[in-house]
Amino acid sequence: MTEDHPAPVLLYDGVCGICNRSVQTILRHDRRGTLRFAALDSDYARAVIERHPELEAVDSVVFVENPGRPDERISIRSAAVLQVLRYLGGPFRLLLAARVLPAGLRDRLYDRFAAVRYRLVRPYDTCPVPAADVRTRFLDA
């Protein structure tokens, strides 16, 4: 990305097994190699939450565009997932068809899945350390 448009950041639940697998999938398919990541309990995420107090009680994936800039934008829950799909491009863009569903319905489906994620895949005790070749893409790693 450029200085005018810094790389987006994805905030995620660092101990969630599904979230970590999703991040690994994103890393494998990120052709640009610019998306960065931070756990929701990291110092970086806390600074984002401080700038966006409405995120205080959010336990969801958060997509941050133009991080740290006056025009910083955040997307949460299903909107964040759609932003990731848009960012990845290629065949992932086909999944953007989910935009035809009303946001409220998408978010209810997201919330239902999020409510059972720890039962589907056991959570980690601590946030896993990223592989050395991608560690620079993780903020506060």
UniProtKB/TrEMBL annotation:
An example Gene Ontology molecular-function term: protein-disulfide reductase activity
Domain of life: Bacteria
InterPro entries, per database record: DCC1-like, DCC_oxidoreductase
Pfam families the UniProt entry points to: DCC1-like (PF04134)
Name the UniProt record assigns to this protein: Thiol-disulfide oxidoreductase
